[in-house]
Amino acid sequence: MNKLKVIAAIFTLFIGICVKAQTPSADLHTKNKKSIEAYHQAELLQKERRWSEAINLLNTIIQKDTGFVEAYLKAGGLYMAMGDKTSARRYFSKASDMYPSVKSFAGMYFTAAGLNYEEGKYEKAKRYFQQSLAVLPTDKRIVDQAPLYITKCDYAIELMKHPVDFKPVLMGPPLNTFFSQSHPVLTADRQTLYFTKLTGLSRQDQEDILVSTYKDNAWTEPVSISSNINSPVANEGTCSISMDGNSLVFVACGKADGLGSCDIYISNKVNGVWSKPTNVGSAINSTDWDSHPCLSADGRTLYFTSARKGGYGKEDIYISHMNDQGDWLPAVNAGPKINTSGTDYSPFIHADGRTLYFSSDGWMGLGGLDIFYSSGSDTSWSVPKNLGYPLNTYLNDETLFITVDGKKGYYSRFKGEVNYTTGIVMYEFDMPDAFKPEKLSTFAQGHIYDKQTKKPLGARVELIDIASGKVTQSVMSDSITGQYTVVITEGKEYAVYVNKKQYLFESLNFDYRVAKDFNPLTLDVYLTPIKTGSHVTLNNIFFPTNSYKLEDKSLVELNKLIAFINLNPNQRIELSGYTDNVGSAESNMTLSTMRAKAVYDYLISKGIKSTFITYKGYGASSPVADNTTEEGRQKNRRLEIKIL
Question: Which residue from 218, 502, 536, 575 has the fewest beta carbons nearer than 10 Å?
Answer without folding.
Answer: 502
